Amino acid sequence: MVHSYLLLLLVCNNGRVTKLSFPNFNITNPIPASICSLKNLSYLDLSYNNLTDHFPTVLYGCSALSYLDLSNNLFSGALPADIDKLSSEMEHLNLSSNGFTGSQQAYNKKLHELVVFNNSFSGVLPANIGDCQTLDNIMAYNNNFTGEFPEKVWWAFPMLATVMIQNNGFTGTLPSVISPNITRIEMGNNLFSGAVPSSAPGLNAFKAQNNQFFGALPANMSGFANLTDLNLAGNRISGSIPPSIQSLKSLNYLNLSSNQISGEIPAAIGSLAVLNILDLSNNKLSRWSPASC
């Protein structure tokens, strides 16, 4: 029989339990293996509790599970090498804000969300991430990941909208064109290098501060027409700020500080009507000549 604390909130479908949701219930007891006697259980949320020890392999027996949220607990240690024994139906896996360590294991190809931020994971991402064509979101920030971030992610995933991998040790480059489906990239405080992409038509936010990007900004900035936030501070960007920056009509935040940008600050910046924050400090710019303020 399933433990009593797991009978407090449930959703039934045709008399069968399909969903258990217990966020912030101060649960400390280990997850019982008997939970998997609920053969139709597809959704399990145990976030914001005080669960401890290693990843609960008892969940391997929940064959219908497609949504698992273990975030904001006290789990620790490396993920088991056989974590692929989790349900083959797994689409949403949230392990964020725990104390997990070690390398990531192979991902289920059906994953829609990879949410592992605020842990101490290290090493490279599994090679099979390129096979996860249904990914909507990658949230792996605030870990100790290293190695080359797979370039395929930036252009080949038809459903991917958000990539948040800041505060790691990733290396790699970006392609010249980012998928139009990607709306948010946060990759600050890594070791990425190479040129800034020439086009990312779907991006609203591009935060790539404190990396090693170099070269000039794209001469034609119209490929970033939907940007509201652009942060390239602390790189090695050179050349001048192109007048085409005026095409970024929705830009609210622009930070190009601590680069090697030279020349005049273009009057075109003054035409950005919704620009709220501008930081061009610590460059080699000669003067400020806005058309309007």
Automatic annotation (TrEMBL):
<dbReference type="InterPro" id="IPR032675">
    <property type="entry name" value="LRR_dom_sf"/>
</dbReference>
<keyword id="KW-0325">Glycoprotein</keyword>
<keyword id="KW-0677">Repeat</keyword>
<comment type="similarity">
    <text>Belongs to the RLP family.</text>
</comment>
<dbReference type="InterPro" id="IPR001611">
    <property type="entry name" value="Leu-rich_rpt"/>
</dbReference>
<dbReference type="InterPro" id="IPR025875">
    <property type="entry name" value="Leu-rich_rpt_4"/>
</dbReference>
<keyword id="KW-0732">Signal</keyword>
<dbReference type="Pfam" id="PF12799">
    <property type="entry name" value="LRR_4"/>
</dbReference>
<dbReference type="GO" id="GO:0005886">
    <property type="term" value="C:plasma membrane"/>
</dbReference>
<keyword id="KW-1003">Cell membrane</keyword>
<keyword id="KW-0472">Membrane</keyword>
<keyword id="KW-1133">Transmembrane helix</keyword>
<dbReference type="Pfam" id="PF13855">
    <property type="entry name" value="LRR_8"/>
</dbReference>
<keyword id="KW-0812">Transmembrane</keyword>
<keyword id="KW-0433">Leucine-rich repeat</keyword>
<keyword id="KW-0675">Receptor</keyword>
<dbReference type="Pfam" id="PF00560">
    <property type="entry name" value="LRR_1"/>
</dbReference>
<protein>
    <recommendedName>
        <fullName>Leucine-rich repeat-containing N-terminal plant-type domain-containing protein</fullName>
    </recommendedName>
</protein>
<dbReference type="InterPro" id="IPR003591">
    <property type="entry name" value="Leu-rich_rpt_typical-subtyp"/>
</dbReference>
